[in-house]
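[job 4471] stage=fold_predict status=RUNNING
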Amino acid sequence: MAFLTDHPALRELLISLALLAAAYLGARFASYLIGVAIERPLARGIDQRLLSALKRPITYALFLFGAWAAVNRMPVSARVDTLVDGVIFAFGVLLVTLALARAYSILLDWYAARSHPEAAASELAREFNPLFSKVGKVFITLIALSMLLQHFGVNVASLVVSLGVGSLAVGLAAQDTLSNMFAGFTILLDRPFRVGDRIQLATGEVGDVQSIGMRATVIKTGDETVVIVPNSLLVKERLVNQSRPTRHIVTRAEVAVAFGSDLPRVKAILRRSALLSPRVDPEREPVVLITRLHESAVNFVVMFWARDYAEQGLARTEVYEAVHDGLTAAGIEIPRPTPRIIQE
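[job 4471] inference complete, writing structure tokens
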């Protein structure tokens, strides 16, 4: 001990080596503990992925901290101490950046899988996740780079101004594209419709959603026409989702009978005929209303619930057939169009 007291430089060197050895052993022990935690039954899913991704960064960070403490006790010149401190700081920032980037990607995938399990939302999430992952990693990298530059005495104010001007120029040039992308992200979060839903656009077109992309949504109408609608229009304009909350849809059938027919009897036949179709929901009573009185006819409308909007046309056809048979069997006349001849 007296020898070490008489030689302080050697003493500090030995302490530094001891700190370095302790840091190495501590890093190995931490790596072992993390490995054990990963293999535990409770560490599944997001916990296991995070531990696996952060195992090496945590281990290296512990050793790096010990190396920094050891170097600070070594009897070296101020210039060497500053150089080594800068190198260790740079490696530390690099480790933290890699750890944050990995954790961000894992959490992003986990959130997309948990919050949007549907096939439609998962498809859109697969398109957006790479974009969000790259943007997040670039943001983390820029923060790390600014920390490094500030640590080494570089003024980052001019760099920030340049990046701001460049971002503004890119934003103005790609305004429509960015608008559609943000609208697609809004659709991903709000989910006003999914792939397979039948929607009615503000222009009156009705079709089934085929796919939801970053820029546009593809809709196929009943006549097999494909309509590509920018996402920004779907977010701004009013649309009707016929698939929500169920696939049931109110369907109308217009019928005319001869003037002077027994109206209560006609209404009973129309209600009964509407329920004869297997595509009509029997639990919901059809509604029969008189819409107009003509000189030779009385117009009715029958409103019933089709079980599936995709079979709305077939349900209406079957109801018309049942109405025709019912009125004919009851002897109620269905008026034919009467041509008028105007002689001048």
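[job 4471] summary: The radius of gyration is 37 Å.
[job 4471] exit 0
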